[in-house]
């Protein structure tokens, strides 16, 4: 199994040894990667990366003794100064004392402000998540951001949510009958559909449980779309604001058999495309949908051709019109994390290369929950959960086994396309 040591660069270029700056100048394939901090036994997960206007990189993630059931979970962040080789110290960026603060996301708006969004888990179950966000105009100094505002993002699905879930249930039942599902599977599906209908009819239950995962989509100078998902419904939803958070409204639901954690790419014709994690029955594929009305309504959720083991993914539109996708491209296991590039807006993915990979099975690590951006210089930055197997790692003096961190990778399109 391949391990990366803290602050160790891995340069991968076919027979080429050069500094990152010289490789950028020549567009030679390159990859550098390092851990933000040494491996530890604490749970560090679900990161998001952004580039600040001064060229600094900021990464946030959640940290604690567990996830939704651990009340010590906080949102942490760290900074890589422009031109620096080592990440600065970690700091707590969000903490609701006595509650888990989890899946965080960031973006920088057209006004140059940094937004941090995350759910606080009210009762140690995902369906009790309450969305929050902070905004900072003072985050360029070499210290944690200073937040000027802190708000609750009130997710308010209306009649369209109830109508959408009812329509989905009808279509799902028709599909089961047409496909002659076994009786046992039909019974299990009926239980799920009944649960969804009951939840959707309850105003409180349909307003709680929504969480962030991938970057929000700054559609234009007036519209922000925050992709959300619910583990309670196993659906996705978009929170939309046209006044930068003064007011919000919800899109129609994206209903399917376990489609969660949406990520949005913008097409050249102005339409939107989303890929979602597959938490449903096989075949296990990233699930997809599209919107032609600025995110208000979405097409029927279908399977894409991309394998997915029930893990997060992110798709982005590059400035040259190509798309980049980072995901676990397996149907089982998170031992392989790849970057793909498409030159036909996701119809096909011509190029693919692994950032981290282990042989599947016992002893494999998990490289997952990735975040992806294109920097101002055109190169790509990814951050992701780096969880190696505890097998073979000696315990620390306190008996814990250090095996988790957040990893940053810096590479260019040429590296992805130089697939051997």
Write structural notes for this entry.
- The chain is 14% helix and 36% strand.
- It is globular, with a radius of gyration of 21 Å.
- The protein starts with 19 loop residues before the first helix and ends with a helix.
- Strands 10, 11, 12, 13 and 14 form a five-stranded antiparallel beta sheet that branches.
- It is built from five helices and 25 strands.
- It has 420 residues and is mainly beta.
- Helix 2 runs antiparallel to helix 3.
Q: How is the main sheet built?
A: 5 strands, antiparallel
Instruction: Work out the helix count.
Output: 5
Oligomeric state of the chains present here: single chain
The CATH class name reads: Mainly Beta
CATH topology: Neuraminidase
Number of domains: 1
Q: Name the structural class.
A: mainly beta
Rough outline: globular
Ranges where pLDDT stays below 50 over 5 or more residues in a row are 1-26
Distance between the termini: 20 Å
